[in-house]
């Protein structure tokens, strides 16, 4: 995901790079720990979120156009495969998005960048659904 400007700067660079991604992931998991709406998805995680945070930081860094360390360390994301052991339906998607949208609001100051990231993450979150009503699966 990159921006289209003359210097070909990435969204990763535009939002502030590693420090902003770190803040975003920390805010996201803080939201997951404190928001009532996230209780169900928080229960899908281990008590120690340290390793999970590190993976999400790597993933978001690469997804936003930063260094490709996620792929170098973990290979292709295969997000649906990696999350297949969890039920992810509309409620789980929505809870994840509530936490992420609040984190974006807290950490991404540029409204256009925040909106672009939020829109792309909403599509990704919907695609991650593995419930029988997921239109993505019915089309294949």
From TrEMBL:
Gene3D superfamilies: Globins
CDD domains: TrHb2_PhHbO-like_O
UniProt KW keywords: Heme, Iron, Metal-binding, Transport
InterPro entries: GlbO/GLB3-like (IPR044203), Globin-like_sf (IPR009050), Globin/Proto (IPR012292), Hemoglobin_trunc (IPR001486)
Domain of life: Bacteria
Record family assignment: Belongs to the truncated hemoglobin family. Group II subfamily.
Protein name stated in the entry: Globin
Source organism of this protein record: Methylocystis iwaonis
């Amino acid at each position: 995901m990159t921006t289209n400007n003359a210097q070909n700067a990435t969204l990763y660079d535009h939002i502030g790079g590693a420090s902003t991604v770190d803040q975003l992931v920390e805010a996201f998991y803080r939201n997951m720990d404190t928001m009532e709406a996230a209780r169900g998805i928080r229960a899908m995680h281990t008590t120690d979120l340290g390793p999970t945070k590190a993976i999400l930081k790597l993933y978001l860094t690469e997804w936003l156009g930063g260094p490709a360390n996620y792929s170098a360390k973990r290979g292709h994301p295969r997000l649906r495969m990696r999350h297949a052991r969890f039920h992810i339906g509309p409620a789980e998607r929505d809870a994840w998005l509530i936490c992420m949208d609040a984190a974006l609001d807290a950490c991404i100051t540029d409204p256009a960048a925040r909106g672009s990231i939020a829109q792309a993450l909403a599509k990704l979150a919907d695609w991650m659904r593995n419930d029988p009503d997921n239109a993505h699966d019915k089309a294949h």
